[in-house]
Write a structure and sequence with these properties.
- This is NAD-dependent dehydratase.
- GO terms for molecular function: biliverdin reductase [NAD(P)H] activity; riboflavin reductase (NADPH) activity.
- It holds the Pfam family NAD_binding_10.
- By secondary structure, the protein is α/β, with parallel strands linked by helices.
- It is 29% helix and 25% strand.
- Helix 1 crosses helix 5 and helix 2 packs across helix 3.
- The strands form two sheets. It has an eight-stranded mixed β-sheet with strand order 3-2-1-4-5-6-10-8, with helices on both faces. Strands 7-9 form a two-stranded parallel sheet.
- The protein has a single domain, classed as 3-Layer(aba) Sandwich (Rossmann fold).
- It has five helices and ten strands.
């Protein structure tokens, strides 16, 4: 059993991953979001809720206590959020961080898939890259995850590529992302200090 803090638990990736943990593990979940009213019915035995901002240092440190794994699926000022999470985890003494970024931040998308989605052509990815750099420069046992465009498909047929390898496809199901996150949460050597691309096979 693993204690997992899901930051961004009400978002599309966070909510599907939450359900996947409940359905496929016996892990204990702490669900963190700025507005937790959207979480719906909780599993009273396995879930608890904390409401607040990841950039609130005291609040974040309180949420981090007792956790084994931190999974962050966020939007907004990602560099500031990544900095806050790295600092908070260092101070509390937690090492394992799983953080959603985006495909294209390393200009790894080949022409046949759509090279216009790379950072060099898409400045909207700058914040994702900055967040990934902040995390990779830390001493944490991190895995940043670079999904393709995600959809609500029911499949978990996916391909994983490492940093420095060309991206393998354009899209991926959120369920596939959740499956990878659960595997990473249960194997601290899988994807250790690496960035993993994930796409539909």
């Amino acid at each position: 059993m693993v204690n997992v803090l899901i930051i961004g638990a009400t978002g599309s990736v966070g909510s599907v991953t939450r359900r996947y943990f409940l359905d496929h593990t016996d892990d204990q979940l702490t669900l963190m979001a700025r507005n937790t009213s959207r979480l719906g019915t909780l599993d009273a035995i396995r879930e608890k809720v904390v409401e607040g901002s990841v950039t609130d240092r005291a609040f974040l440190q309180s949420a981090l206590k007792g956790q084994d794994v931190v999974f962050a699926a966020l939007s907004g000022d990602l560099p500031a959020m990544a900095s806050a999470i790295v600092s908070g985890m260092d101070q509390v003494g937690i090492s394992r961080l799983l953080f959603i970024t985006s495909m294209g931040i390393y200009n790894e998308i080949p022409v046949n898939i759509g090279a216009q989605g790379n950072l060099q052509s898409n400045p909207m990815l700058k914040g994702y890259r900055q967040a990934a750099d902040i995390i990779s420069e830390s001493d944490l046992n991190y895995t940043t995850i670079r999904p393709g465009w995600f959809d609500n498909g029911d499949d978990t047929d996916y391909q994983v590529t490492k940093k420095g390898e060309p991206f393998g496809g354009h899209d991926v199901s959120i369920k596939s992302i959740a499956d990878l996150v659960v595997k990473l949460a249960h194997d601290d050597q899988l994807g250790s200090r690496d960035s993993l691309g994930i796409n539909r096979r």
